[in-house]
Amino acid sequence: MEEKRFALLIDADNISVKYVKYILDEISQYGVATYKRIYGDWTETTSSSWKDALLENSINPVQQFSYTRGKNSTDSAMIIDAMDILYTKSVEGFCIVSSDSDFTKLASRLREDGMLVIGMGEEKTPKPFRVACDRFISLNLLMDSDIGEEGISPKELGLSNCNKEEKNNNLSVGTIITKETIEEEIIKIISSKENGVVGLGEIGSTLLKKYPDFDVRNYGYSLLSKFLVELPRLKMIKRGKSISVERNDNRINKNEIDTYTINIVKSQGRDGIFLGELGNRIHNKYKNFNVRDYGYSKFSKYIEEIDCLSIKQDSNRQKKVFIKGPEK
Asked: Which residues are in the HTH OST-type domain (predicted)?
Protein backbone atom coordinates (compact mmCIF):
# COMPACT_ATOMS: atom_id res chain seq x y z
CA MET A 1 0.00 0.00 0.00
CA GLU A 2 1.41 3.40 -1.01
CA GLU A 3 2.37 5.71 1.86
CA LYS A 4 0.53 8.98 2.37
CA ARG A 5 2.50 12.06 1.38
CA PHE A 6 2.63 14.90 3.90
CA ALA A 7 3.64 18.54 3.91
CA LEU A 8 5.44 19.22 7.20
CA LEU A 9 5.25 22.91 8.12
CA ILE A 10 6.93 24.08 11.34
CA ASP A 11 6.47 27.43 13.09
CA ALA A 12 9.93 28.14 14.54
CA ASP A 13 8.58 31.11 16.52
CA ASN A 14 6.52 28.79 18.70
CA ILE A 15 8.45 25.51 18.66
CA SER A 16 11.82 24.63 20.21
CA VAL A 17 14.61 22.89 18.28
CA LYS A 18 14.66 20.11 20.90
CA TYR A 19 11.46 18.66 19.37
CA VAL A 20 12.75 18.16 15.80
CA LYS A 21 13.72 14.49 16.16
CA TYR A 22 10.40 13.62 17.80
CA ILE A 23 8.39 15.46 15.15
CA LEU A 24 10.08 13.59 12.30
CA ASP A 25 9.85 10.22 14.06
CA GLU A 26 6.15 10.71 14.70
CA ILE A 27 5.18 11.84 11.20
CA SER A 28 7.03 8.82 9.74
CA GLN A 29 4.36 6.61 11.35
CA TYR A 30 1.70 8.20 9.17
CA GLY A 31 3.53 8.53 5.87
CA VAL A 32 6.43 10.31 4.21
CA ALA A 33 7.11 14.05 4.52
CA THR A 34 7.69 15.17 0.93
CA TYR A 35 7.73 18.83 2.00
CA LYS A 36 9.75 19.78 5.09
CA ARG A 37 9.73 23.50 5.73
CA ILE A 38 10.33 25.61 8.80
CA TYR A 39 9.45 29.30 9.06
CA GLY A 40 11.20 32.01 11.07
CA ASP A 41 13.46 35.02 11.00
CA TRP A 42 16.85 33.35 10.56
CA THR A 43 18.69 36.68 10.85
CA GLU A 44 17.93 36.67 14.58
CA THR A 45 20.72 35.35 16.80
CA THR A 46 18.20 33.19 18.68
CA SER A 47 17.69 31.14 15.49
CA SER A 48 21.31 29.94 15.29
CA SER A 49 20.56 26.84 17.39
CA TRP A 50 18.45 25.48 14.52
CA LYS A 51 21.30 25.27 11.97
CA ASP A 52 22.61 21.75 12.72
CA ALA A 53 19.12 20.25 13.18
CA LEU A 54 17.96 21.60 9.80
CA LEU A 55 21.03 20.32 7.96
CA GLU A 56 20.90 16.87 9.58
CA ASN A 57 17.22 16.39 8.79
CA SER A 58 17.01 18.12 5.40
CA ILE A 59 14.44 20.69 6.55
CA ASN A 60 14.22 23.78 4.34
CA PRO A 61 14.28 27.07 6.28
CA VAL A 62 11.98 29.77 4.94
CA GLN A 63 13.07 33.30 5.76
CA GLN A 64 10.38 35.58 7.10
CA PHE A 65 11.43 38.99 8.41
CA SER A 66 9.68 40.41 11.43
CA TYR A 67 8.22 43.50 9.79
CA THR A 68 6.45 44.66 12.95
CA ARG A 69 7.88 44.18 16.42
CA GLY A 70 5.80 41.85 18.57
CA LYS A 71 3.91 40.35 15.62
CA ASN A 72 4.32 36.75 14.48
CA SER A 73 4.97 37.26 10.77
CA THR A 74 5.68 33.58 10.09
CA ASP A 75 1.96 32.73 10.37
CA SER A 76 0.99 34.35 7.10
CA ALA A 77 3.94 32.80 5.23
CA MET A 78 3.01 29.31 6.48
CA ILE A 79 -0.64 29.78 5.56
CA ILE A 80 0.17 31.01 2.03
CA ASP A 81 2.58 28.12 1.42
CA ALA A 82 0.07 25.60 2.79
CA MET A 83 -2.59 26.80 0.35
CA ASP A 84 -0.09 26.75 -2.54
CA ILE A 85 0.81 23.14 -1.70
CA LEU A 86 -2.86 22.23 -1.34
CA TYR A 87 -3.61 23.42 -4.89
CA THR A 88 -0.73 21.37 -6.35
CA LYS A 89 -2.57 18.21 -5.15
CA SER A 90 0.83 16.63 -4.52
CA VAL A 91 0.11 15.55 -0.91
CA GLU A 92 -2.62 13.72 0.97
CA GLY A 93 -2.00 15.33 4.33
CA PHE A 94 -0.45 18.19 6.30
CA CYS A 95 1.42 18.25 9.58
CA ILE A 96 1.25 21.70 11.16
CA VAL A 97 3.65 22.16 14.06
CA SER A 98 2.84 25.14 16.25
CA SER A 99 1.46 26.00 19.67
CA ASP A 100 -0.41 28.95 18.17
CA SER A 101 -4.20 28.99 17.74
CA ASP A 102 -3.79 31.22 14.64
CA PHE A 103 -3.60 28.05 12.53
CA THR A 104 -7.07 26.87 13.56
CA LYS A 105 -8.74 28.22 10.42
CA LEU A 106 -6.00 26.79 8.21
CA ALA A 107 -6.45 23.30 9.67
CA SER A 108 -10.21 23.47 9.12
CA ARG A 109 -9.77 24.69 5.53
CA LEU A 110 -7.33 21.90 4.67
CA ARG A 111 -9.71 19.29 6.07
CA GLU A 112 -12.55 20.73 3.98
CA ASP A 113 -10.46 19.82 0.95
CA GLY A 114 -10.09 16.22 2.09
CA MET A 115 -6.63 16.55 3.61
CA LEU A 116 -5.62 14.53 6.68
CA VAL A 117 -4.39 17.16 9.14
CA ILE A 118 -2.08 16.26 12.00
CA GLY A 119 -1.30 19.01 14.49
CA MET A 120 1.64 19.03 16.88
CA GLY A 121 2.32 21.50 19.66
CA GLU A 122 3.20 21.93 23.30
CA GLU A 123 0.73 21.34 26.12
CA LYS A 124 -0.09 25.06 26.12
CA THR A 125 -1.62 24.78 22.63
CA PRO A 126 -5.16 26.24 22.74
CA LYS A 127 -8.12 23.90 22.38
CA PRO A 128 -9.52 25.41 19.12
CA PHE A 129 -6.39 24.38 17.17
CA ARG A 130 -6.33 20.94 18.79
CA VAL A 131 -9.86 20.04 17.76
CA ALA A 132 -9.55 21.57 14.28
CA CYS A 133 -7.09 18.78 13.40
CA ASP A 134 -7.86 15.15 12.61
CA ARG A 135 -5.19 14.24 15.12
CA PHE A 136 -3.35 16.42 17.63
CA ILE A 137 -0.16 15.22 19.30
CA SER A 138 1.49 16.83 22.33
CA LEU A 139 5.22 17.39 21.80
CA ASN A 140 5.81 17.23 25.55
CA LEU A 141 4.27 13.78 25.51
CA LEU A 142 6.55 12.64 22.67
CA MET A 143 9.62 13.73 24.63
CA ASP A 144 8.41 12.01 27.79
CA SER A 145 7.72 8.71 26.00
CA ASP A 146 10.31 5.96 26.44
CA ILE A 147 12.68 5.84 23.48
CA GLY A 148 12.16 2.10 23.10
CA GLU A 149 8.35 2.27 22.85
CA GLU A 150 6.67 1.45 19.55
CA GLY A 151 4.38 4.47 19.70
CA ILE A 152 0.70 4.53 18.73
CA SER A 153 -0.02 2.77 15.51
CA PRO A 154 -2.03 4.94 13.07
CA LYS A 155 -3.43 1.68 11.69
CA GLU A 156 -4.76 0.80 15.15
CA LEU A 157 -6.40 4.20 15.37
CA GLY A 158 -7.94 3.89 11.92
CA LEU A 159 -6.50 7.19 10.70
CA SER A 160 -5.92 5.91 7.19
CA ASN A 161 -9.69 5.58 6.75
CA CYS A 162 -10.72 8.67 8.71
CA ASN A 163 -13.92 10.13 7.24
CA LYS A 164 -13.65 13.92 7.25
CA GLU A 165 -17.39 14.49 6.82
CA GLU A 166 -18.14 12.61 10.03
CA LYS A 167 -15.53 14.52 12.05
CA ASN A 168 -17.04 16.02 15.20
CA ASN A 169 -15.22 19.11 16.46
CA ASN A 170 -16.37 18.80 20.06
CA LEU A 171 -15.09 21.92 21.82
CA SER A 172 -15.61 20.33 25.23
CA VAL A 173 -12.54 18.18 24.69
CA GLY A 174 -10.10 18.44 27.59
CA THR A 175 -6.32 18.11 27.48
CA ILE A 176 -6.49 14.65 29.05
CA ILE A 177 -9.78 12.77 28.95
CA THR A 178 -10.44 10.49 31.92
CA LYS A 179 -10.21 6.72 31.45
CA GLU A 180 -13.80 6.43 32.62
CA THR A 181 -14.98 8.80 29.89
CA ILE A 182 -13.12 6.85 27.20
CA GLU A 183 -14.47 3.56 28.52
CA GLU A 184 -18.02 4.94 28.46
CA GLU A 185 -17.58 6.16 24.87
CA ILE A 186 -16.39 2.70 23.80
CA ILE A 187 -19.35 1.05 25.55
CA LYS A 188 -21.64 3.32 23.49
CA ILE A 189 -19.86 2.32 20.27
CA ILE A 190 -20.22 -1.37 21.11
CA SER A 191 -23.88 -0.97 22.12
CA SER A 192 -24.66 0.57 18.73
CA LYS A 193 -23.63 -2.66 16.97
CA GLU A 194 -26.17 -5.41 16.47
CA ASN A 195 -23.68 -8.15 17.33
CA GLY A 196 -22.00 -6.17 20.13
CA VAL A 197 -18.51 -6.48 18.59
CA VAL A 198 -16.34 -3.65 17.18
CA GLY A 199 -12.96 -3.75 15.44
CA LEU A 200 -10.03 -2.05 17.16
CA GLY A 201 -9.48 0.30 14.21
CA GLU A 202 -13.08 1.49 14.24
CA ILE A 203 -12.88 2.22 17.96
CA GLY A 204 -9.71 4.26 17.42
CA SER A 205 -11.07 6.30 14.53
CA THR A 206 -14.41 6.92 16.29
CA LEU A 207 -12.67 8.16 19.44
CA LEU A 208 -10.52 10.53 17.40
CA LYS A 209 -13.57 12.00 15.69
CA LYS A 210 -14.76 13.18 19.09
CA TYR A 211 -11.42 13.66 20.86
CA PRO A 212 -8.68 14.64 18.32
CA ASP A 213 -6.06 14.94 21.09
CA PHE A 214 -6.80 11.50 22.57
CA ASP A 215 -3.48 9.71 22.96
CA VAL A 216 -2.92 6.51 24.95
CA ARG A 217 0.57 7.71 25.85
CA ASN A 218 -1.13 10.15 28.23
CA TYR A 219 -2.07 7.10 30.29
CA GLY A 220 1.30 5.35 30.12
CA TYR A 221 0.61 2.96 27.23
CA SER A 222 2.31 2.58 23.85
CA LEU A 223 -0.60 1.05 21.91
CA LEU A 224 -4.36 1.41 21.92
CA SER A 225 -4.76 -2.35 22.37
CA LYS A 226 -2.66 -2.30 25.55
CA PHE A 227 -4.74 0.58 26.90
CA LEU A 228 -8.07 -1.17 26.26
CA VAL A 229 -6.96 -4.37 27.99
CA GLU A 230 -6.83 -2.42 31.26
CA LEU A 231 -10.44 -1.18 31.04
CA PRO A 232 -12.50 -3.59 33.19
CA ARG A 233 -15.77 -3.31 31.24
CA LEU A 234 -14.14 -4.31 27.93
CA LYS A 235 -12.84 -7.59 26.55
CA MET A 236 -10.32 -8.00 23.71
CA ILE A 237 -10.80 -10.78 21.16
CA LYS A 238 -7.91 -11.86 18.90
CA ARG A 239 -8.56 -13.85 15.75
CA GLY A 240 -5.29 -14.22 13.89
CA LYS A 241 -4.02 -10.68 13.29
CA SER A 242 -7.47 -9.18 13.77
CA ILE A 243 -8.42 -7.60 17.11
CA SER A 244 -11.98 -6.74 18.09
CA VAL A 245 -13.57 -5.49 21.31
CA GLU A 246 -16.77 -6.41 23.11
CA ARG A 247 -18.25 -5.81 26.55
CA ASN A 248 -16.86 -7.80 29.42
CA ASP A 249 -20.40 -8.74 30.34
CA ASN A 250 -20.43 -9.29 34.06
CA ARG A 251 -23.78 -7.57 34.44
CA ILE A 252 -26.10 -8.88 37.12
CA ASN A 253 -29.51 -9.99 35.92
CA LYS A 254 -31.72 -6.89 35.87
CA ASN A 255 -34.82 -8.73 37.05
CA GLU A 256 -32.93 -9.86 40.14
CA ILE A 257 -31.86 -6.29 40.95
CA ASP A 258 -35.35 -4.92 40.28
CA THR A 259 -36.92 -7.47 42.64
CA TYR A 260 -34.37 -6.67 45.35
CA THR A 261 -35.00 -2.93 44.89
CA ILE A 262 -38.78 -3.28 45.09
CA ASN A 263 -38.49 -5.33 48.29
CA ILE A 264 -36.32 -2.66 49.91
CA VAL A 265 -38.84 0.08 49.08
CA LYS A 266 -41.78 -2.07 50.26
CA SER A 267 -40.04 -2.67 53.59
CA GLN A 268 -40.04 1.10 54.22
CA GLY A 269 -43.83 1.30 54.01
CA ARG A 270 -45.49 4.68 53.52
CA ASP A 271 -42.34 6.58 54.50
CA GLY A 272 -40.43 5.48 51.41
CA ILE A 273 -36.64 5.62 51.21
CA PHE A 274 -34.18 8.30 50.16
CA LEU A 275 -32.87 7.77 46.64
CA GLY A 276 -29.25 7.93 47.79
CA GLU A 277 -29.77 5.41 50.56
CA LEU A 278 -31.49 3.05 48.13
CA GLY A 279 -28.52 3.30 45.80
CA ASN A 280 -26.09 2.54 48.63
CA ARG A 281 -28.04 -0.58 49.61
CA ILE A 282 -28.05 -1.89 46.05
CA HIS A 283 -24.31 -1.27 45.72
CA ASN A 284 -23.67 -3.04 49.01
CA LYS A 285 -25.52 -6.09 47.70
CA TYR A 286 -24.23 -5.95 44.10
CA LYS A 287 -20.67 -4.57 44.12
CA ASN A 288 -20.40 -4.34 40.31
CA PHE A 289 -23.76 -2.65 39.76
CA ASN A 290 -23.56 0.22 37.26
CA VAL A 291 -26.70 1.76 35.74
CA ARG A 292 -24.82 2.52 32.51
CA ASP A 293 -24.53 -1.22 31.92
CA TYR A 294 -28.31 -1.25 31.46
CA GLY A 295 -28.52 1.80 29.21
CA TYR A 296 -29.22 4.50 31.82
CA SER A 297 -27.24 7.66 32.44
CA LYS A 298 -28.53 8.23 35.99
CA PHE A 299 -29.64 6.03 38.89
CA SER A 300 -32.91 7.99 39.14
CA LYS A 301 -33.73 7.11 35.50
CA TYR A 302 -33.16 3.44 36.26
CA ILE A 303 -35.57 3.58 39.24
CA GLU A 304 -38.23 5.48 37.30
CA GLU A 305 -38.33 2.66 34.72
CA ILE A 306 -39.38 0.12 37.37
CA ASP A 307 -43.16 0.07 36.93
CA CYS A 308 -44.28 -0.05 40.57
CA LEU A 309 -41.85 2.62 41.85
CA SER A 310 -42.04 6.40 41.79
CA ILE A 311 -39.71 9.20 42.86
CA LYS A 312 -41.01 12.26 44.72
CA GLN A 313 -39.44 15.17 46.59
CA ASP A 314 -40.15 15.60 50.31
CA SER A 315 -40.62 18.92 52.09
CA ASN A 316 -36.84 19.41 52.13
CA ARG A 317 -36.66 18.86 48.36
CA GLN A 318 -34.87 15.55 48.82
CA LYS A 319 -35.75 12.70 46.49
CA LYS A 320 -37.48 9.66 47.98
CA VAL A 321 -38.68 6.44 46.39
CA PHE A 322 -42.17 5.03 47.03
CA ILE A 323 -44.32 2.13 45.94
CA LYS A 324 -47.03 3.34 43.56
CA GLY A 325 -50.74 2.90 44.30
CA PRO A 326 -52.51 1.89 47.48
CA GLU A 327 -49.35 0.45 49.10
CA LYS A 328 -47.66 3.83 49.22
From this structure: 178-249, 253-325
